[in-house]
Amino acid sequence: MPSWVESANDPAGDFPLENLPYGRFRRERREPWRVGVAIGDQILDLRLKEDLNAFMARGPAAWRLMRRALTSGLNFRKGKKGAWSRHLVPQRDVEMGLPCEIGDYTDFYAGIHHATRIGKLFRPDNPLLPNYKWVPIGYHGRASSIVVSGTPVRRPSGQTKAPDQEQPRFGPSARLDYELELGFVVGRGNALGQPVPIAKAEEHIFGVVLLNDWSARDIQAWEYQPLGPFLAKSFATTISPWIVTMAALAPFRCPAFERPPGDPRPLPYLFDDKDQRSGGLAITLDTCLKTRQMKQPVRISRSNSRDAYWTLAQMVAHHTSNGCNLRPGDLLGSGTLSGAAPEAGGSLMELTQGGKVPLELPGGEKRTFIEDGDAVILRGRCDHEGAAPIGFGEASGVVRSSAG
Length: 404
Description:
Layout: E1 22-26, E2 34-39, E3 42-45, H1 52-57, H2 60-74, H3 81-84, E4 88-90, E5 95-96, E6 105-108, H4 112-122, E7 138-140, E8 146-148, E9 153-154, E10 157-160, E11 169-172, E12 176-177, E13 180-186, E14 205-212, E15 215-216, H5 217-223, E16 237-239, E17 244-245, E18 253-254, H6 273-278, E19 280-281, E20 284-290, E21 298-304, H7 312-320, E22 331-333, H8 348-351, E23 359-360, E24 366-367, E25 375-382, E26 390-400
Parallel strand pairs: 6-22, 8-16, 9-26
Antiparallel strand pairs: 1-2, 1-5, 2-3, 3-4, 6-7, 10-11, 12-15, 13-14, 13-22, 14-16, 14-17, 18-19, 20-21, 20-25, 23-24, 25-26
């Protein structure tokens, strides 16, 4: 569908009329955050009298009504150019914030290729633990350190211990890594003690962002047993500023991950026929790296979210199966989304085989892990025959040296 916003009609752009993702912006620091939708290289100020969390809490009926109104108003043939054009703001002229207030953050481990490769580094004969194919694994992350794309990331310090050391040391992480993920933003919540059935699970998800779960691998290796990730993950998590709605992603649904023969059938609370037919998401995911010496970023890996072992609905159903209450604005990370090929790894830990095989970069540079001054840039794109391609923008961050 063409739009009267000319830049929205560029097929190479991320934000055509078929997308309309939500975010929060301001034109100057003393101004309160405003809710808008991206259209081409512009933002339409929605002039909402409520914050985005309150709008998301209204549920699917309200989301559909707003989408119909926006699509109609921005349409070239029957739009509201005269009335709405004065509410457009160029994206280059604003500061983007976190797209909503994030109350809680859960990070899952749904990328089976990532889980298998990481497992092989530590357990060559038994890479996947027995529970992986029965239950969507996750842990409770730190919401306070989630930052919007463009925010610098400070190299964390923590305890590390090499195998030949008698005692640990404290200092800056030497094995800083990224993890390529999607983040699912909760819209309508559920009451405490009321599980969400899998058939209704997606009604509680408003949309999707790109997510970089920065990881200090050396700190993680020392601290993660027996309770899992802690300080190796909580120093920063970067997300993209635009929430691409589930409605915009409808043309890019695909079947759930095809489990190999011999894998267990999910338990009944995690199984739904419709979810198996169309519960997956076909999103091409790129990771780019830019060092201080580079003029332009270079792509170091490409994968696809269709390789997630667990669907979004399965993650929501499991998360709430014990009665846990999700709230508007809560964020669910997918876990690292790697492809089956070794070069499709969603982290440097995979691409360099735990730091053993350096990544060759243009200009003769090499990387085993991220160095100070490096920028990691995540991008996502949906492209399917018969549907207008849409994108997610970027989730980027430059690493700065440790604070001490």
